[in-house]
Amino acid sequence: MTASPFPHDESTQPQQSPRPPGGAHLDSTAQIMDRITSQLGSQLSLVSLDGSRRPTPPALVLVGHGSRDPRALSTVSALAERVRELRPDLPVRLGHIELNAPLLPDTLAELGTAEAVLVPLLLSRGYHIKQDIPEMAAASSARTRVAPPLGPHPLLVETLYARLVEAGWRTRMTDAQRRSSAVVLAAAGSRDPESDVDTRRTAKLLAEYVGVPVVPAYATTAAPTVPAAVRALAAQGRHRVAVASYFTAPGRFATECAEAAPWIAAAPLGAHPAMARLILHRYDQAVAAPETSATRELASAR
């Protein structure tokens, strides 16, 4: 029997870091100390060694894809708020490629000629990463850098595992249960072969985490589809198949993939704390990276 896809708004649920097999589990005290350390570091970053206040850091612009599903906007807005909580000094904006306001060009226009780092809420390389977002950035007056996609990364795997556990995945299994279990990693799909490489890398990392096979499958464009992956696993004797939702937020593709689950379906990644940490990691990477000659030429052309 298929679990009801996303029966709750995950952005409003208590977020807990489950204990992975053989991994360490942060208790509440450690989590509090981690939050205090992050906020203290954020405040200290505002002050130079001579005691003067440092310039405002480049704005962080979260770039969402956009969706007709109203849950998508509320989810990415909640994720943006989590980022603000972790880095209160950092200006955080939101812009969409399509379908939702504010659109990315409008967000960049509001920034004028200020510096900004665009962090795509996308999970692999593909057309939006390579074409759409850089072109929108180049057309604006803002001085921009574009961070890499969020995936693959261990923090995504941490979030995927947490969502599976919330949906009913057992953290402890007998050998017989493990032999009959598997996970389908449901992603959007892309014609770009590098997107498939990235998704397969995430599937491999998740398989190491859960200790059962993880098969990448796609909602559109690429193969196999989620139903095809489920059938292939059943033919191998793996009938306890969970669908892990490799989507940033709820939407049509995520819902359709969840409905194909023969056992349990996890909610999308959403506003999990690990997602907020990953966004800041990508932002910091982009800020620390040296400017390329292409970046300088683009800036001088504006």
Which terms summarize this structure?
disordered C terminus; 302 residues; 11 helices; 4-stranded parallel β-sheet; 14% strand; alpha/beta; disordered N terminus; 44% helix
Q: How do you describe this structure in short?
A:
The chain has 302 residues and is of the alpha/beta class. Helices cover 44% and strands 14% of the residues. The model is unreliable at 1-19, 21-31 and 293-302 (pLDDT under 50).
Structure in words:
The chain is built from eleven helices and eight strands. With 302 residues, the chain is α/β, with parallel strands linked by helices. The strands form two sheets. Strands 2-1-3-4 form a four-stranded parallel beta sheet, sandwiched between helices. The protein has a four-stranded parallel beta sheet with strand order 6-5-7-8, sandwiched between helices. Helix 2 (70-86) packs across helix 10 (273-288), helix 5 packs across helix 7 and helix 5 (154-167) packs antiparallel against helix 10 (273-288). The protein is elongated and about 60 Å long.
